[in-house]
Design brief:
Chain B: Keywords: Cell membrane, Membrane, Transmembrane, Transmembrane helix, Transport. The complex is a heterodimer of chains A (about 110) and B (about 240). Chain A is built from 5 helices and 2 strands; from the N terminus they run αααββαα. Chain A is mainly alpha-helical. Chain B has about 240 residues and is an all-alpha fold. Chain B has helices at about 5-35, 40-50, 50-65, 70-80, 80-90, 100-105, 110-120, 130-155, 170-185, 190-210, 210-235. The chains are: A mainly alpha (about 110), B mainly alpha (about 240).
């Protein structure tokens, strides 16, 4: 059984780590300007990170081997993408995504 | 989504993302409860650590008896991408006070970051404290409450994944990515599409040999670096 004290220490320690990674950029950039070349680098962050967060969910990792497909998420992504193209509405897109995966799980 | 940056508009823009926090928060509460953590610990972790992916990692590392330091390192590697996201958003908030910058940074998440990047396309690339703070706080409260409900009901409630709720965040990123590519006039449409494909390739390759705690960070760093190279060579 884990001691309450140890778990609390982990929570606070990790909280400090996640807080610092969130807050440091805001503190630094309030005071300093970023060099243009770095701004250009950062301009790719949105499209790359949103793509990466999606594609991460499409595979199952087997370290040292090729990843396999997460068939459920892959199939659910198809109606989700189509709903994005048709509706351009985030609420509709999320609802279609959830519903698609629920139906796929129900049928499987 | 429109150009309005009021509190009301912040609430309206954030609502579509909340189902993700509810689904993943419930799931986290249930998993943490079944791992032997009590409700107080679960709620404290959601309120203090406040990071979906990191919290699942913490629970599994606690259960496997990992040391304090190894948990901290894993959480840092998993969270380091926030440095990049923060640096991307922060320049838009330079006019706000230091205190407000710290408040906004403290509660920034993958989701409110992605939402902000989309919002910029509708506001002539402006964002303010009121709008982002509303999005952040709504997300924060939803996450804490959902994980608390998951933790208190534990195995009594059916697995929320049965209802597809675990897909909410992925669906949201698909939606935000698509809307971003359509609306962002600061980067060529073709270049953005190329970057999506580049990221697909990098993610696939990365999954072979990069541990999951490091994957998003490495893919983002390499992806952005490749983006600069491709842009300078062809655009």
């Amino acid at each position: 059984m884990l001691s309450f004290k140890f778990v609390l220490l982990v929570i606070v320690g990790c909280g400090l780590v996640t807080w610092l990674t969130r807050v440091i950029p805001f503190i630094l950039l309030k005071k300093f300007e970023l060099p243009i070349s770095f701004v250009e680098f950062l301009s790719f962050v949105p499209v790359v990170i949103m793509s990466a967060l999606w594609f991460n969910g499409l595979f199952v990792q087997h370290l040292g081997h090729l990843p396999s497909l997460n068939i459920e998420n892959l199939l659910a992504s198809i109606p989700t993408v189509i709903s994005a193209i048709i509706s351009k509405n985030l609420l509709v897109i999320v609802a279609v995504g959830i519903l698609s995966l629920a139906i796929i799980r129900f049928l499987a | 989504m429109n150009g309005n940056l009021s509190l009301r508009s912040g609430i309206k823009d954030t609502i579509p993302t909340l189902s993700g926090y509810i689904g993943v928060g419930l799931a986290f509460g249930i998993v943490a409860k079944s791992a032997g953590l009590n409700l107080l610990i679960i709620v404290l972790m959601s309120a203090i650590t406040y990071s979906g992916a990191a919290q699942f990692v913490i629970v599994s590392m606690l259960v496997s008896g990992s040391t304090f330091l190894s948990i901290l390192v894993a959480v840092f590697l998993l969270s380091a991408r926030m440095l990049l996201m923060g640096m991307t958003v922060a320049p838009y908030l330079k006019k706000e006070s230091m205190k407000r910058n710290i408040i906004l940074g403290s509660l920034l998440t993958d989701e409110t970051f992605a939402l902000t990047m989309n919002k910029l396309n509708y506001t002539k690339r402006i964002v303010n404290f009121e709008w982002l703070n509303t999005a952040n706080i709504l997300a924060y409260l939803t996450w804490i409450i959902a994980s608390g409900i998951g933790g208190s009901l534990g195995s009594l409630i059916p697995n929320p994944n049965k209802f597809g709720l675990d897909f909410a965040f992925i669906a949201m990123f698909i939606g935000l990515l698509y809307l971003q590519i359509l609306a962002d006039r600061t980067m060529a449409f073709k270049l953005q599409v190329i970057m999506v494909l580049v990221t697909l390739g990098l993610t696939y390759l990365g999954l072979i040999f990069i541990p999951s705690s490091l994957l998003l960070l490495v893919v983002t760093l390499v992806g952005c670096w490749l983006g600069v190279k491709i842009k300078n060579a062809f655009f």
